[in-house]
Amino acid sequence: MDSIKQVNMKCKNMLIEYEQMQNLDDIICSLSEDETSVIHTRHEEFVKSMSLITLDSSPITRTTVAGNIFAELLSKKILPVEAITRGIDAVLKDWNDYLMEYPQFFSYIAAIIAPLLLSQNAFFDFNNLKDCCTSIRPDNSTQFFTEVLNTILISKETQNIKEQRGGMLWIYKKWLASKYVPLDIFIPHNQINKYFENDRIGAFLLSIAMYDQLKMADKKLQHDILNSWITTNISAEVIKCPQFMRALTIAIFIDRINSIHPNEDFLVHCHVKLLTHYIQSEALPVSEIIAREVQCLYGFQIMSAALEYPEKMVLRLFHHLYQDSVISKESFQTWKKDDKFNSGFDEDLETKNMTVLNSFFIQLELNDSDEDDTDE
């Protein structure tokens, strides 16, 4: 018991010192030099104690500080990643008890995780996040996982790296750079409808869930398998949402960049079939069809930006989308003219770089002129 009190006191003093001095570097240096410190001898207890003490007062501020301390210690190889994942999992294990006292409990723990994921030196990814919530996966990890994503989106660190593709673009890039983790490790398929929101997080969750189906399927069966999965797991209300098309497009894009062969078209027949089927899955007004097609283009734009895809490849892709009658001329033109960012969706997107696409839109205009001449 005395040893636990010792760890708690060490953690509490550390947080008080930071609040008074704002001296994170000095704290890390002191911990690094003191080889008798609990941080060197009792890693998991230190992580668990620090995480719980942050809940006592000003939890949002303190949890972020704790996350930054963990990230720095991990980057300096003082604190092993296993100690962090096991320590946080030990806290999450009793989530039901803590939730009664701290209704925002998952938000507080997410604030500890975010600095670890955002750190450029700590080498902490979504596979490590999976290990942080072993005791609550998968039935009770959905809320925690979505809180982590939301915390990353609104964090100061994300805003600071926005010029270097922050926000949702950063999340996609981090997810794809991590060791492969199926989304249903965090969110069971039968909970996707419940947690789908018409925003960036909702589109992300749906896109990764659909990508998982494409990844695991035989290439010849991708259309049938994904179509069956959507029919079984995704509600008609979600499918009707234009953002569904953004998610489907992103899923196809991710699948293709991981499997495309040299000289092969970016979109193969089954992908064209999937896109055209769900763009017009039911009789819709022209305006709604255009809205769904425009979301496809935003999906390609998001992934091209996130992965810094070659602009010439995007140009080829646009030509294929038009030639295969996936996207109409009206939808391309609507996308081109749409300079207004949609709240909750496009804050991460830079202004469209039209230079590389000039030839495509010139060709569209020429085709339009040819059609007019033919009509006459």
UniProtKB/TrEMBL annotation:
Entry superkingdom: Eukaryota
Regions annotated as coiled coil: none
SUPFAM superfamilies given in the database record: ARM repeat (SSF48371)
Annotated InterPro entries: ARM-type_fold, W2_domain
W2 domain ranges (all copies): 293-373
Matches recorded under Pfam families: W2
Protein name from the UniProt record: W2 domain-containing protein
